[in-house]
């Protein structure tokens, strides 16, 4: 870094105005503490540009003066990517003021937006035009579309609509040297050469800062049915999933696995929440079926339920009779995550596996965790239809350092097993900083060479989101 802090602040204030620069400790707090409240970073300064041009101006300035930069969206990411690095000061670019919906085309089913739009704002805007933006996740009231794109977010409707990679048609990106790449095309088919936008999706801000996007919308579903089914085992859940895929055609939009221990966490978080059943069952499945045309959803769900009952896959079930009952069932899913969060430091993962391996993996991994730490509690649930499990472990009360060491051992053992099952250590949250080492350790030399080559092409000085996904590469390599 060639400039001192007052010079940097002076430049930013000149180009962004007073509200565009934040540096007093009280105001900086919300940018520096992560969602879980247990990690903290320390930025050089927080810049809040309002336009793509302003983002480009700051990034070009940083490039000229060898200043490290990191982008921050809603700061709900769970792998420390948007958290500023304390050892190597970074200028943080918050996209929160770049938050306009640029246009919506109901016939083309597309919407052009600034990167700082909050996901909920995008969903509401689409809905007002009888359209639907399907990305749905617990953090949708705070996360930004630029963060969703940069982490290739998934969520509850991936089964039917795909992840962000499938939902982005065009992108606008400020490159690490400050140039603007305008790829804001609203085309459903474009087969002309390399698909550059896909490089930035899921890149966690390491190759450029996303400033705008053209999103793919769908017709708004006019009907939906939500059911919570009680099952005897994980195996039964997978058999039921197989049935549901065949039975409900492409109308199945969510299929969530919830073992009993996870439901208990929801009741812990909100003790007034009633148990939807009179009896406790080993496993539950929360599913959504939606349609936008005249389809008899009730009979589809009933047939699935009755077939499950007679084959023994299903033991009991609750079908939501109204939107508010459906919301109550989904609320339990949200409360589960809240309950887990209240238990403090724990192993949190978002692994994925071939769907056909989930039951075997579940048994093996639970056994491994119990062998390594009999007092720990496995809390594993997930978007089973995507092969995605949040295989989390709550450790016993221990002195902090011992607890950290235990969680590290459990993570290593779990990730070894994931590799053995040909799975992925990140299906949703990305690599960021917290999974950088285990991720890198699983790559072949060829993969490492290709990835570092791409990074070098975009960011040869290594100034943008350094240490996320890739390790910092020594200069002489
Ligand atoms: C309660 C809860 C539930 C969640 N559920 C899910 C889920 O179901 N599925 C899922 O996939 N994730 C989930 N997440 C994780 C998180 O919400 C998503 O990863 C989200 O996409 C992050 O968006 P954000 O705006 O908060 O990004 P941030 O946390 O601000 O940033 C995430 C990463 O993207 C980079 N970044 C942010 N904005 C930009 C930009 N404009 N250009 C370039 N880089 C950028 C950051 O530098 C960082 O590396 C959940 C999180 C919480 C707290």
Automatic annotation (TrEMBL):
What is the name attached to this protein's record? Answer: FAD/FMN-containing dehydrogenase
Q: Which residues form the FAD-binding PCMH-type domain?
A: 39-220
Q: Which GO terms describe its biological process?
A: respiratory electron transport chain
InterPro entries of this UniProt entry? FAD-bd_oxidored_4_C (IPR004113), FAD-bd_PCMH (IPR016166), FAD-bd_PCMH-like_sf (IPR036318), FAD-bd_PCMH_sub1 (IPR016167), FAD-bd_PCMH_sub2 (IPR016169), FAD-linked_Oxase-like_C (IPR016164), FAD-oxidored/transferase_4 (IPR051264), Oxid_FAD_bind_N (IPR006094)
- Give the highest taxon in the source lineage: Bacteria
Asked if the keyword Flavoprotein belongs to this entry, the reply reads yes
Q: Which GO terms describe its molecular function?
A: catalytic activity; FAD binding
Flavoprotein as UniProt keyword: yes
Q: Which keywords label this protein?
A: FAD, Flavoprotein
